[in-house]
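Illustration: Lamin tail domain-containing protein.
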Amino acid sequence: MRFLPLAAASLAAVATLSTGLPAYAAAPAVQIIKVYYDSPGPDRRSSSSLNAEYVVLKNATRSTIQLEKWILRDKTGYKYRFGAFALRAGKSVTVRTGSGSDGTSTVYWGRGQYVWNNDGDTASIHRASDLKKVDACSWGRSGDWTNCS
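Result:
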């Protein structure tokens, strides 16, 4: 009986921890893990240069996520809306700025101009159902790419 108050206090602490965690503590289902915002070489809007600018998204769950109508956007409002695309559990997809043929691990925005600002920007991914922001990644003025995870 002597340790009953200690046990009750421990249970109360566990209950507080299990219910009191903020919502952001859980990892997002779809994560932005890398943004390559400054493609190598001069910015001449060639297909290879545009496609060297990209964002990598990862499915951090154990289930396939249907990304159809999900939106990837930058801070100023450029938007890429996914077509029919299933991101399998634990897999990644690269969204390239330029043109190409979509596949199972790479999709193309189809733009003729760059999206991601070299001097700082924010990439964010939004669900189709309610346009709620799922994850975001920001960077400043240095480097060519950023690791977001």
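Reading the tokens back as a structure: Residues 1-23 have pLDDT under 50 and may be disordered.
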